[in-house]
């Protein structure tokens, strides 16, 4: 899975970060330190429990009413994910998941060739072909 | 069609190599160069800004920084 550079927006504040494009992630999950950098107040966060791929429960932080957006190139869209405090000394990686990052894009992986494309302005599907 | 495909590397080869020395740390990067490193995002962000880098790329260096060289 590749990393890409994105910008996380909170209103007029933003920070540039690397996220791992992860088709296995339902939604994006960023290190909570980024939330601090863009001025999100932890006292206002909704604290929820999520289950990791390994089956462990973790506490996550969400700001459902905050104007959070992801920018990738010129493509800018709502951030629908959450934040987590990764354990100190761990190898926490911010993930770009399906609900937000994958939704407006066509993302192609060609693992054996180490090729990867993100189509940021795909043509919308025209619907199923008309029947006979 | 080319502009529809985001294939430019987020991290170029030399930087990916330099990041190995910072595994487990937070770094701030500007123009493919490490401008700050430390133990927290805020620490490196503020170090970078104090050095005149107003909009650094901030991230934690994973055990596999070479992956970042792909894209």
Strand order of the largest sheet of chain B: 2-1-3
**Largest interface: pair, residues per side:** A-B, 32 and 24 residues
Instruction: From the 3D structure, determine the CATH topology of chain A.
Output: Cathepsin D, subunit A, domain 1
Point out poorly predicted stretches of chain A. none
Number of continuous helical runs of chain A: 2
- Major sheet characteristics of chain A: 5 strands, mixed
How far apart the termini of chain A lie comes to 42 Å
As residue ranges, the low-confidence spans of chain B are: 1-6
Strand content of chain B: 15-25%
What is the name of the CATH class of chain A?
A: Mainly Beta
Percent helix of chain A, as a range, is: under 10%
Oligomer: heterodimer
CATH architecture of chain A: Beta Barrel
Mean pLDDT metric of chain A: 88
> What's the β-strand tally of chain B?
3
Give the CATH H-level superfamily of chain A: Acid Proteases
Which of globular, elongated, flat, extended, rod-shaped describes the shape of chain A? globular
Given the helix and strand composition of chain B, which structural class is it?
Answer: alpha+beta
SSE ordering of chain A: EEEHEEEEEEHEE
How large a portion of the residues of chain A is in β-strands, by DSSP E? 35-45%
**Total count of domains of chain A:** 1
